[in-house]
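Researcher: Can you fold this with 6-diazenyl-5-OXO-L-norleucine in place?
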Amino acid sequence: MRVASIIFLTGSIITACTSPKKSSLGHVNPYQYTINKKVEAEKGAVASAHPLASKVGIMIMKQGGNAIDAAIATQLALAVVYPAAGNIGGGGFLVARLADGSTVSLDYREMAPASAHRDMYLDPQGNVIPNKSVKGHLSSGVPGTIAGLVESLKYAKLPLKKLIQPAIDLAEKGFVISEREARSLNSLQEELRKYNTTTTAFQKTAPWVTGDTLIQKDLANTLKRIRDNGAAGFYEGETARLIVDEMKRGGGIIDYADLKNYKAKWRTPHQFNYKGYTIVSMPMPSSGGVLINQMLKMLEEKPLASYGFLSPQAVQLMTEVERRAYADRARFMGDADYFKVPVSTLVSESYLKNRMQDYMPDKAGSSEAVQPGEIPAKESEETTHLSVIDAEGNAVSITTTLNDSYGSKTVVGGAGFLLNDEMDDFSVKPGVPNMYGAVGGEANAIAPGKRMLSSMTPTLVLKDGKPFLVVGTPGGTTIPTSVFQTIVNVIDFGLSTEDAVNKPKFHHQWLPDQIEIEKGFPYPVREALQKMGYKLNERGAIGRTEVIKVRNDGKFEAVADSRGDDAAEGF
Ligand code: DON
């Protein structure tokens, strides 16, 4: 729907001439809002991919909610205002430090449907069928997001019906879209026509323009069923019927039993020490926690800070630890409920020391020479991030995804939400790269009920047991390297929070054997790395990192990545 007249002022104020309607949104005006990149706050802070979602989180805390309430409400709002990745048809991970000092992690990653099988994306000759694991109905895993949000109510203070109402209002009454969103929706139109059996709210004959209002009535109704029935409002009843009918129309395989059997799982966070800080991150089926553990520990003894931020020496060392960790990811990592992942060896001091033995300063390593490590036979396994903190001592780090931007591009007819294409995160054939170029094998092969290996790395850094950093990002396989670099930028290089987030990032994932760099990566450093023998590949943005830092004076500093419409809010 197009609004009458639009005043689009700058990149940071989105506005349309529509008067705010009274709703659960309180002071959040979906027709005129600002994008703040940095806030300082005392009582609570939220950084997420969308200003309206961040504002909803703060509003919930002002109404008496804690950081968990705010995280649930923010995520539900993102499912409406950030359809490219915010979702109820995908999955995610939560890592939290609770007010009582304990740490928890929740796995609500999608799972393979019961009738999925190892070779389901191969033709009779055993070749991968292009796009089959990436687009349309067959690419979706059983969604986990709603199970995860309902499960995390365990630590919330407010009822679901209060936390979900802002999302319902945003879907029902609409919100004004930004230039970036208009562009993104326009680029999606052809695929929407191709992969849908009904007409979706994202389709329009005239192009979307800045200031248009996006209304999602079917999604509002789905959210109301969840409000009234909790997880059963998604996994059973009308919503389940709409999902299964959609699967039947489009040749998908998710059935009623898959939906009913889906469970979010509490897991022990992957935790370790780095230079006196405690890092709390996600365990399998995320590779993230183990990867950042390996990378940080491989360089802990080296004089990294003395090399200087983004110096050729620092980038080279960080590249070489990234190479080694990602080689291990390809061989050893997958859903630990299905495959024995040798976690304790992979992060042990002697193993990591050994991994770095062939590291040569000033000379490029090679991924042919650096293979996955040796594990002894006897061994004791488009995305979006939000960071939330409150004054009670709760800190929440959530990364959630549909995988590709707008997932499978398939919207559940009548239910109004996009389904993920997370099945592509499995290794659909040993050695064949997925959409992020990641290779895998047995550890991450498809099996019924199994969860596909993820790179999502929602992370907390604790100082003396108390929250210091809340950090995470989207970006496929670049996620662990972005989180790793953000942590090193703050702890080792002493960068400000903004610089730690916004300065150019780089990425090496073993295969392909090249360093991916962002456009702003300095030219003299490129030349120095090339001289050492590295191949460089300039690419688009790496991640959209949201960080909250607790300063020495106890105040929160929330920074939203400048690479997108991401916004930080606080009070
Ligand atoms: O779980 C994973 O590792 C991927 N599905 C994440 C995808 C992602 O970050 C896309 N965003 N840019």
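Model: Folded with 6-diazenyl-5-OXO-L-norleucine in place. The chain has one domain: 38-270+382-570.
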